[in-house]
Amino acid sequence: MTLGIVILNYNTADLTVDCLRSVLEDASQISARIVIVDNGSTDGSPQKLAAEIAGTPCVELLPLPRNGGFACGNNRGIERLGDADYLLLLNSDCIVHRGCLATCLKIMEADKGIGVMSCLVKNADGSPQNVARKFPTPIRAILTTFGLPTRFPRVFAFANTEDPNWDRTTCGRDVDWLGGAFFFIRGAVLQKCGPLDEEFFFYGEDIEFCHRVWKRGYRCHYDPSSSITHLGGGSNSPNQQERRRRARDMVQRKCYGRFAAALVRCADATAARMRAILR
């Protein structure tokens, strides 16, 4: 088995170095190749990273001329590792815990139906992050827009995309979609599903990709028997709210069609008007 790891860097050289060192410690017992993709950084990252990986033959630095977004940067790394049996897309602000990579490989090898998996992802304080959620189907998106799953959880619990009420520290299960901070993908799935959708810039690409994985007959699986720490916020941008809104709209359009996207936009506009009137 071979594992290809893509670490995407954008103005986070120090975080990326810490991430790489944790990966190299854990990858010593497996056949791993690592590509650090620099997504058009402007802080001198390529020079810092080149110095860090000098003399490390399993690590390659791929500098890109511009920041094309999360999907674009990861896809360029995937192209360099296209013949790997498995690929891991790993955020630069993550620390991989000992044994994580080998455990994930064993799980994927034991269950050929898993297309994408994630492990237990912890915050810096050790608390679990929610990286396993339900798809934002049109009905769930509309009900959430009006706050109904929160206000009336007994009636509208099915629409809560956060999928609460199960312990992510002890319980492994199949889920609708997984967050992209730690995205462990079967190589054959990429061949069948294609790469990440580069129309997304930052947010939403993980949802859309997992939607394709399920459509192609594979499963998305969460397993807490191994873990990483995700510090979070390493590459956030000042206009992230607008990017979230656009990504939400694209997820509806690409996964459920233009009519569904239009319905959700109408619900958003109606909810915004209602809030204005109440104010």
Helix content estimate: 40-55%
CATH class of the largest domain: Alpha Beta
- Global structural class: alpha/beta
Strand content: 15-25%
Spans where pLDDT lies below 50 across 5 or more residues: none
Gap from first CA to last CA: 59 Å
User: Any idea how many domains?
Assistant: 2
Can you offer a commentary on this structure?
The chain is an alpha/beta fold and 279 residues long. The chain has two domains: 3-130 and 168-236, Spore Coat Polysaccharide Biosynthesis Protein SpsA, Chain A (Alpha-Beta Complex), CATH 3.90.550; 135-161 and 238-279, no CATH class. It has eleven helices and eleven strands. It has helices at 13-26, 45-53, 70-80, 100-110, 138-145, 148-151, 153-156, 187-193, 205-215, 240-256, 258-278, and strands at 3-9, 32-39, 59-64, 86-91, 94-96, 114-122, 132-133, 173-175, 177-178, 182-186, 219-230. Strands 1, 2, 3, 4, 5, 6, 8, 10 and 11 form a nine-stranded mixed beta sheet that branches. Strands 7-9 form a two-stranded antiparallel sheet. β1 (3-9), α1 and β2 form a beta-alpha-beta unit. α9 (205-215) packs parallel to α10. The longest helix has 21 residues, at 258-278. The protein is globular. The mean pLDDT is 94.
